[in-house]
């Protein structure tokens, strides 16, 4: 890949559409640069893409949403690759307000942006966006101090801003397409480049930060790492095995779902999502049942 490129929008979670692009990192590979549209009663755009791709970004955005309806532009942080089309969007989306925090406003001003339509969040304050609230949190890894990730209270999707990024050999639709070694190495290289302070952290302290995210109980972490068993021919036998396992241990999954009859009444046919945890190393310790 020699130049930044925009790809077709795709649904990545409930109510959530990704506007994907990728930028070349010479000598290493490519880096995804994703923005997202949340289709609620008050639609939200999360970040505004790369400056070099403003034209195709605006085309993809306008394919995804009528800009007259757009109400909020959540700026995760003020790095250039998140502000690429901000000016154009503000000009074409008359009802949209920019959501950021105190430092975000200051840095937008320093870069010459119009801050007359900013909705500034106070520390600890959530954004009420119609049928959902977006509750900010500081991601475990970030490259700008104003960074705000958030959890969507309606879908429990967690937007992690720049955290969990990776340099990949080439652009992909889903992280399941990336060999685990390449993903691990790509995350390590990107973290070393983008958040070098990580090297000063004790691993236990970083683990505690990750545990706080776990307690938020997200349904999906955008750009997080897991291997979904997609409903495609490649995963037919693995999905069948997962389904068999669930039948044998029904209590294991009751926690993660709602009773079938209730689901059908609310949402129609039931389509399960299966995923598996890849275990690469065992410690040798084994849990045993109480005697
Ligand atoms: Fe950044």
Structural class: alpha+beta
Counted by DSSP, the helix tally is 8
Instruction: Give the low-pLDDT segments.
Output: none
The number of E-state strands comes to 16
Overall mean pLDDT: 84
Bound molecules: fe (ii) ion
The CATH superfamily name of the largest domain is Ribonuclease Z/Hydroxyacylglutathione hydrolase-like
What is the CATH topology of the largest domain? Metallo-beta-lactamase, Chain A
How would you sum up the major sheet?
9 strands, mixed
Features:
8 helices, nine-stranded mixed β-sheet, 291 residues, five-stranded mixed β-sheet, alpha+beta, Metallo-beta-lactamase, Chain A, 16 strands, binds fe (ii) ion, 28% helix
Walk me through what this model shows.
By secondary structure, the protein is an alpha+beta fold. It has two domains: 5-222, Metallo-beta-lactamase, Chain A (4-Layer Sandwich); 228-276, no CATH class. It is built from eight helices and 16 strands. Strands 1, 2, 3, 4, 5, 6, 7, 8 and 13 form a nine-stranded mixed β-sheet that branches. The protein has a five-stranded mixed β-sheet with strand order 9-10-11-12-14, with no helix packed on it. A hairpin with a 5-residue loop joins strand 4 (29-38) and strand 5 (44-46). The radius of gyration is 20 Å and the shape is globular.
Please render the helix and strand layout as text.
Elements: E1 5-6, E2 10-13, E3 16-25, E4 29-38, E5 44-46, H1 54-64, E6 72-74, H2 86-92, E7 97-100, H3 102-110, E8 118-120, E9 127-129, E10 132-137, E11 149-152, E12 157-159, E13 167-168, H4 180-194, H5 203-215, E14 220-221, E15 227-229, H6 236-248, H7 250-254, H8 260-267, E16 274-276
Parallel strand pairs: 5-6, 6-7, 7-8, 12-14
Antiparallel strand pairs: 1-3, 2-3, 3-4, 4-5, 4-13, 9-10, 10-11, 11-12, 15-16
The structure holds fe (ii) ion.
